[in-house]
Amino acid sequence: KGALPGGLNYSTYARSGTAYLTIALALTSLVMGIMFIRDLNLHRRAPLLRILSWVWVAQNLVIAIDTFRRLQVYIDYNGLTRMRIVGAYGIALVVIGLLIVAVKMHNIRTFLWMVRRHLLALGLSLLALAITPMDWLVTRYNTGIILYDNLRPAIQLIVQPLTAEGIPGLIPLLDSRDATIREGVAGILLR
């Protein structure tokens, strides 16, 4: 793992790609939706527009992959939280949105078809997010990192709220080599 670009901390680094990714999806959806309305599909330059559109979608997918990577770097450095899970879902939703745009272009679908698919993807993503056992995932992941001697995620045990679903994930930390971690987790479990 290399050093971060100058003047950035891990939080800023992870978040900076997300804004660009969201803007890219919105612009791509809007422009592609308008570009291929009705008769424009039959225009003599439509094949060139399609090629340029595929390049644009591919470019946005590269941005999405980079945003996932930035989030993973941040999680590896500072641990998993509920909001970082929400961020991962958001990035995945943007990728699905780009794929919907690609299907619209390839199959010459309407703008309304695309909007409906985007809304369906949003609804399904929210449902998946609602049934995700967040605290269980967070504590299991962070416990694994802490046991491999990256103690930075231990701060999440103090600053993040913890529900009953996350408590079993903390139990392995009672065997940590670090006395502060062992005692701190014992205190959390007693509380």
List keywords for this structure.
elongated; 8 helices; mainly alpha; 74% helix; 191 residues
Task: Describe this entry's structure for a reader.
The protein is an all-alpha fold and 191 residues long. It has eight helices and no strands. It has helices spanning 10-35, 46-78, 82-107, 111-131, 134-147, 154-159, 167-170, 179-190. Helix 3 (82-107) runs antiparallel to helix 4 (111-131). The longest helix has 33 residues, at 46-78. The chain is elongated. The two termini are 37 Å apart.
Q: Major sheet: size, sense and barrel closure?
A: none
List segments where confidence is low: pLDDT < 50 over at least 5 consecutive residues: none
What value does the Rg take, in angstroms?
21 Å
Number of helices: 8
The share of residues in helices is: over 70%
The overall strand count is 0
Our estimate of the beta-strand percent is under 5%
Mean pLDDT: 83
Distance between the termini: 37 Å
Please provide the ordered H/E string of secondary-structure elements. Answer: HHHHHHHH
- Oligomerization state of this entry? single chain
Given the helix and strand composition, which structural class is it? mainly alpha
Shape: elongated
